[in-house]
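URGENT: need a sanity check before tomorrow's submission.

F., can you look over the histidinol-phosphate transaminase record below? I want to be sure the sequence and structure line up before it goes out.
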Amino acid sequence: MFSNKYVREMKPYPLTSHRAWEREGEEDVLKLDWNEATIAPSPTVISSIVDFLSSGRLNWYPDVNNAELLKELSYYCSIPEKYIQYFASSDSLHEYLAKCFIEVGDRVSIISPTYDNFRATVESCGAIVNYYYLDKSFNFCFENLRDYLNHENPKIVYICNPNNPTGTIYSPEDLEALAKEFINILFIVDEAYFEFAKVTCKDLVLSCGNLVICRTFSKAFALASFRVGYAIASTDIIETITKIRNPKNISTLSQIAAISALQDSAYMEEYVKQVLTAKKYFDQELSGLGLECFGNGGNFTLVKVQQELKKKLIDYLQSKNIFVRDYGHVNGMENYLRITIGTLDQMKPVLTCIAKFIKENE
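Structure tokens as predicted:
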């Protein structure tokens, strides 16, 4: 009875089952449903956390302006520090962006199908969400989007690049053209999977004041539990968000983990290399089994499976301690599931299970 009408009327972001946690103590669990890294963080991260736990100030609030973290982010991104700010996850960043830039009745366009939590975030603030849909093969047409934006004239456009769950990659040249043509639209580009595609338009923030890049440590850096993300944007946007950002919400352990992960970025790069090798092999093998795979970007693959068989396959994999993501809740994606890609050694048993299932259900 006390909720605002926008929260009351909106559909929540649909969470998948976290049943993998029920088997967390079992060594053979493969959690391939939320696109987390499938390996532990860098040993440097673990060592730094252990050192702090034994001698650090756990009774103090976190550093509210961690100069070392900003310096490391600046070095990693090759962007001056004044264009960067860190947050307690990229989801938290999305919430601050909504609070700063959304007014009741504002139109927000989302290139879809994509990560749905952003939709829930802006709707809770009173935004009106509409969608620009990729084609049936999840391809993107620049001219069609350009015409759409001229017609809809939204205040904000949300683009996930590479896109989750389709793996679609948008070229920096196309995004630059859009940002420079539609100067009255704020473009929020979610680069959660940047490390796996190395495609970015982050340098545009130096000249475009209508662009925000969102990134996370949850994927390639293997720090999902620590909830750390960051923004790359114009100084005006960074200063605006910082007005309402609660700096105490980024825990000391999270800050330490992020710094340590950046200082050992070679560990992350080696993992990314392994994932890309595994993804190429995995997609080829699935195609050989008669399954259609989509997308080049990200640490995941989107697989088309006949709807009647899909639920059986998901249940079968779960019985083998392999957890994948069902996209049946998304309109038009009833025949799709998403599988996070780990290392080659991790993905070979998944292929074995899928091959066995297909043979038994021919």
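My own read: The chain has two domains: 16-41+266-360, 43-263. The mean pLDDT is 94. If you see anything odd, call me.
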